Amino acid sequence: DAQTGQDFRLHQPQAKVSVAVGETLTLRCTTSGIAGPGPVRWLKGWGSGSTTIYDQKRKDHFSHVTRAVVESDTDFTIHIRDVQPDDVGTYYCVKFVKEDAGEDEVFQRGNGTEVSVHETALVPGMVAAAVVLCFLLLLLGLFIALCVYRRKRQGRVGSPCPARTVAMGSFSSVPLRCCAGTPGTPSEVLDAESSHLPSQPSSKEENNIHYADLQPLPPAPQRGRSPGTAPTEYASLRVAAK
């Protein structure tokens, strides 16, 4: 019997194992040689606080633990299904033998397997889809920003000319607003108004005539005015084309 016990070996190869929540955990344990009668068990923890999660001699099955090789006398690898955070701990494969008093005593145990549980990992397809979605959102944001910039730029270019103030000698300043080139101003109005103006020498650089109809001025003192000369109500302003 002593020779038989010396030939027995229990091998627990896994030092650490990490598994995701909901997956199946596999704990490996094999034996060789012959030992005295007694079961092989899997314990969670060691000492007084240990818990038996598998017993070779028990006929009733544990809730979520199954043997990888059923009824094998050398392979005691087990599967733990639907792993949860509560399954974190260190697991030991232990060979027991019966003493003369009929009690099971530890004969040999493995080095233990430390089990850690993490959240479900993202599959590669989900990661790739997330990257593509982020890239498309970035392109959409750039397109919207470009559209807003172009609208603002076009609004500044097409906006009407601001009002300008022209001082006519000692008279009060008169506000003028650009007419030529302003959207919605008919060209016929410009032609009709400009026909009353005295002819002026034209230049190739002057493409537009800007005209403003001023309010009638108060009568000026009659000092040296030649007979038959009437005061004019018109003024012309010529702006060189840019």
- The CATH architecture assignment of the domain at 9-118 turns out to be Sandwich
Going by CATH, the homologous superfamily of the domain at 9-118 would be Immunoglobulins
Could you please say which CATH topology of the domain at 9-118 applies here?
Answer: Immunoglobulin-like
**SSE string, helices as H and strands as E:** HEEEEEEEEEEEHEEHEE
Strand content: 25-35%
Query: Strand tally, please?
Result: 15
Alpha carbon gyration radius: 51 Å
Compute the average pLDDT.
Answer: 75
- Specify the number of helices: 3
Region (Disordered): 187-242
Protein name: SHPS1 phosphatase
Organism: Tichodroma muraria
Transmembrane segments: 126-149
Secondary-structure blueprint of this entry?
Blueprint: H1 2-6, E1 9-11, E2 16-20, E3 25-27, E4 30-32, E5 40-44, E6 51-55, E7 65-67, E8 78-80, E9 89-98, E10 104-109, E11 113-118, H2 124-158, E12 164-166, E13 174-176, H3 187-194, E14 209-213, E15 234-238
Parallel strand pairs: 2-11
Antiparallel strand pairs: 1-4, 3-8, 5-6, 5-9, 7-8, 9-10, 9-11, 12-13, 14-15
Short description:
InterPro entries: Ig-like_CS_Receptor, Ig-like_dom, Ig-like_dom_sf, Ig-like_fold, Ig_sub, Ig_V-set. The protein has 242 residues and is of the alpha+beta class. The chain has helices at 2-6, 124-158, 187-194; strands spanning 9-11, 16-20, 25-27, 30-32, 40-44, 51-55, 65-67, 78-80, 89-98, 104-109, 113-118, 164-166, 174-176, 209-213, 234-238.
